[in-house]
Amino acid sequence: MTKVMRRLWKDDEGQDIAEYxxxxxxxxxxxxxxxxxxxxxxxxxxxxxxxxxx
Length: 54
Prior knowledge:
Elements: H1 2-10, H2 13-53
């Protein structure tokens, strides 16, 4: 039983996948937030330009 516990304790193969998943989630949140912010601001700018042209 102790051999199995030692092997599981030293086996860190799954940590790489979890770390990549966390990094991907953080990057995805940043990208979506940036796109939403830029989208809102650009919509306001285009609306102002369109109203000034008319």
